[in-house]
Structures are given as structure tokens and as C-alpha cells.
From TrEMBL:
GO cellular component term, pick one: membrane
Species: Pan troglodytes (Chimpanzee)
G-protein coupled receptors family 1 profile domain location: 41-290
Protein name (database record): Olfactory receptor
A GO MF term: olfactory receptor activity
Entry keyword annotation includes Cell membrane: yes
CDD domains with a match to the protein in the record: 7tmA_OR6N-like
Subcellular localization: Cell membrane
Function: Odorant receptor.
Length: 317
């Protein structure tokens, strides 16, 4: 067994960007712009919600937590991707690979729980409006957000421990754009059926249960909205949920196909495409979805910008 000890395998090599060739520069610029947009967009939403007292409501509290989470979620993978695009030596240490997997899955699980909490918030607001202010207090919001983070960071521990104990042979090329369980398990020198089964059980529980809860919440929300007699009332009620539902469909649609399966991989192209969707595109479009479809948030952004502009003008006088 010593000949397969993972300690002899000091690092892994990423092959996800190995064949980009002459488009390397363009790919780097596009990914960098996407990352900067993600950071600026989510930072703007987080800051505006925290600074504007009119947005200190449960719904916007969860939106600000989601924006804050997306900043860390993208930081676990995209900076390393940018480095790998430019570098000839696209490597990562064994410990670094496991850490990247742990934080990526922890933050991903936290997002699943957070999106579920946001669905519950919308369910209470629309289906039980009279009880909503009593139930969804500031204290409960804080406790729910803390629970989402705590549960998320506990979920992948067993998977990472099992992966850390696998023996790896001389082949160390990861066929992916960042470290993840499926490509890592494919490099092991022993049967990984137990690891795959554990991964499937944990991922299925986290992803499918939270997604099912969200869908049940929206089924009840739609039922309540359809009972509203006026078209304007129905539109106003559902407009508060449209942004969240769009984020849910994009995020869960990609991770279900990626992680709720008993196979290591369907195809390299599919895996990389899905990885781009849930690790890059979803965090990038979240600020767009929440700002473009939310007049109240747009007004708050304008108020914040103009107030800062007025303060700056007064400071020069």
C-alpha cells in the first residue's frame, strides 16, 4: 500500500485550460471581467442594503447575505483559474486541492440552505401576511442565516476526510478547471465506489431536499397569488419572488446534473460547462437579476450613489 501513498503525490496538474492555445489572452480577459463584475455587483448590493434603512427587511437581509456569500464562493475557484490560464505550470498541492474542494462545497451547500430560507421568507410574506411580521423577526433572520452557514460548512467534512485517505498513483492530471470530487476520485488507485456513494447520498440530501422544499413553497405561493382578484395585485405579489425563483432555477438546474449522480462523470465537456454555469455565471448574474427586477433596490442604489455624491460636493466647498 505504501507505493500508492498519496504523500508521494505532492501536486495535481489542471488540464481544463491546457488546450486554449491562442485564445488564452481573450479567455483570461473575459474571466477577469466576469470576476470583477461579480465582485462589484455583489459588493454594491450588499453595501446598499446595509446602508439604506428602507431595505432593512427580512427579504433584503437574505439578499445581502447571499451577495456576501457569492463573494467568497467565487474567490475559492476563479483566482486560481485566472492563474492557471496564464501560467505554464497549472498545478495545485494535494492539501490545496482538498481545501479548495472543502470551501467550494461548503459555500455551495450554504447557498442551497440560504435559497431555501429565502423561499420560506417569501412563503410567509405572501401566504401568511398577517403573521409575517410576528414570525419573521430580525432575530429569526439572523439565526436562520447563521444556521445556513453552519450547516453548509459541516456538510462536506466527511467527504473531504474520505478523499484525503485515498491512495493516488503517479497519474496526477485533473481533467477539470478546478478541484472537485468527481475528477479527484477518478485519479485514485483503488475502488472509489464507497466515496461515490457517500458523495451521492450527501449531495442528494442537500440539493434535492432543499430544492423540493423550495418548490413546495412556490407551489403554495402560486396558489395564493392566483386567489388574488386583481391582475395588478397578482403581479405585485409574484414580482417579489421572480428574482429569487430565477436564481434558484439557474443554480439548482446546474448542480443537480453535476452532483446528484452515481457516475464519476458523464463527459468532460458537460462537466466543464456545468462548472462554468454554477461557479461563474450564477454568481455573476445574481446582481443583474436582483437589481433589474427590483425597483426598490434600484431606487436605493441611486439614493446611495447620489448621497455620496452630494457629500463629496459639500466636502469640496
Amino acid at each position: 500500500m505504501d507505493q500508492y501513498n498519496h504523500s508521494s503525490l505532492a501536486e495535481f496538474v489542471f488540464l481544463g485550460f491546457a488546450s486554449v492555445g491562442y485564445v488564452r489572452g481573450w479567455l483570461f480577459v473575459l474571466l477577469l471581467l466576469a470576476y470583477l463584475f461579480t465582485i462589484c455587483g455583489n459588493m454594491l448590493i450588499f453595501s446598499v442594503i446595509r446602508l439604506d434603512a428602507a431595505l432593512h427587511t427580512p427579504m433584503y437581509h437574505f439578499v445581502s447575505v447571499l451577495s456576501f456569500l457569492e463573494l467568497w464562493y467565487t474567490a475559492t475557484t476563479i483566482p486560481k483559474m485566472l492563474s492557471n490560464i496564464l501560467s505554464e505550470k497549472k498545478t495545485i498541492s494535494f492539501a490545496g486541492c482538498l481545501l479548495q474542494i472543502y470551501f467550494f462545497h461548503s459555500l455551495g451547500a450554504s447557498e442551497c440552505y440560504l435559497l431555501t430560507a429565502m423561499a420560506y421568507d417569501r412563503y410567509l410574506a405572501i401566504c401568511r401576511p398577517l403573521h409575517y411580521p410576528i414570525i419573521m423577526t430580525t432575530t429569526l433572520c439572523a439565526k436562520m442565516a447563521a444556521a445556513c452557514w453552519t450547516c453548509g460548512f459541516l456538510c462536506p467534512i466527511s467527504e473531504v476526510i474520505l478523499a484525503s485517505q485515498l491512495p493516488f498513483c503517479a497519474y496526477n492530471e485533473i481533467q477539470h478547471i478546478f478541484c472537485d470530487f468527481p475528477p479527484l476520485l477518478s485519479l485514485a488507485c483503488k475502488d472509489t465506489s464507497a466515496n461515490i456513494l457517500v458523495d451521492f447520498a450527501i449531495n442528494a440530501f442537500i440539493i434535492l431536499i432543499t430544492f423540493l422544499f423550495i418548490m413546495i413553497s412556490y407551489a403554495r405561493i402560486i396558489g395564493a397569488v392566483l386567489k388574488i382578484k386583481t391582475a395588478s395585485g397578482r403581479k405585485k405579489a409574484f414580482s417579489t419572488c421572480a428574482s429569487h425563483l430565477a436564481v434558484v432555477l439557474v443554480f439548482f438546474g446546474s448542480i443537480i446534473f453535476m452532483y446528484v449522480r452515481l457516475k464519476k462523470s458523464y463527459s468532460l465537456t458537460l462537466d466543464r460547462t456545468l462548472a462554468i454555469v454554477y461557479s461563474i455565471l450564477t454568481p455573476m448574474v445574481n446582481p443583474i437579476i436582483y437589481s433589474l427586477r427590483n425597483k426598490e433596490l434600484i431606487k436605493a442604489i441611486k439614493r446611495t450613489i447620489f448621497q455620496k455624491g452630494d457629500k463629496a460636493s459639500l466636502a469640496h466647498l
